[in-house]
Amino acid sequence: MAIALGLGSDRPDNAALLPQNGATWRGQDQWDGHQVDVMTGPDAGAKPGTGGTVRYWIGSDGTMYRVQVEVASQARPVVIDFDTGEYVPVQPVPGVGPRP
C-alpha cells in the first residue's frame, strides 16, 4: 500500500538530478496494446528498509501503466498494474449522506 500511495506524491523528483541517482531509460516495450518507455527510478538500495530498483512503464502521454518494485522482504518484485479505463464516479446511495 505504501508503494502505491507514494506514487501519488505531489512533489515530483527533480528531472535534472534523476540520472545522478541511478535513474535510467531501459528501452521501449508494448504493454496492454500501448507503446511504452521502460525506465528505472533512482536507486533506493542505500536507504534502510528498502529494496533496490523501481521500474516504470510509461506511455507517450505520461500514463503510468505498470510499476515493479524490488522490496527487501520479498523474494520476487512487487508489481502494480494500473487500469486505464474511463473514470466512472460512484453514485450516492439514496438517503445516505454526510450529517449536517
Brief summary of the model shown:
The chain has one helix and five strands; from the N terminus they run H-E-E-E-E-E. It has 100 residues and is mainly beta.
Explained architecture:
This protein starts with a helix and ends in a 19-residue tail after the last strand. It has one helix at 2-6, and strands spanning 24-31, 34-40, 54-59, 64-69, 78-81. It is extended, with a radius of gyration of 17 Å. It has 1 helix and 5 strands, in the order αβββββ. A 5-stranded antiparallel β-sheet has the order 1-2-3-4-5, with no helix packed on it. A hairpin with a 4-residue loop joins β3 (54-59) and β4. It has 100 residues and is mainly beta.
The H-and-E topology, N to C, reads as HEEEEE
Q: What class, by secondary structure content?
A: mainly beta
Measured by DSSP, the beta-strand proportion falls in 25-35%
Rg estimate, integer Å: 17 Å
Biggest β-sheet strands, sense, barrel: 5 strands, antiparallel
Features:
single chain, 31% strand, 5% helix, 5 strands, mainly beta, extended, 100 residues, five-stranded antiparallel sheet
Helix-strand blueprint:
Blueprint: H1 2-6, E1 24-31, E2 34-40, E3 54-59, E4 64-69, E5 78-81
Antiparallel strand pairs: 1-2, 2-3, 3-4, 4-5
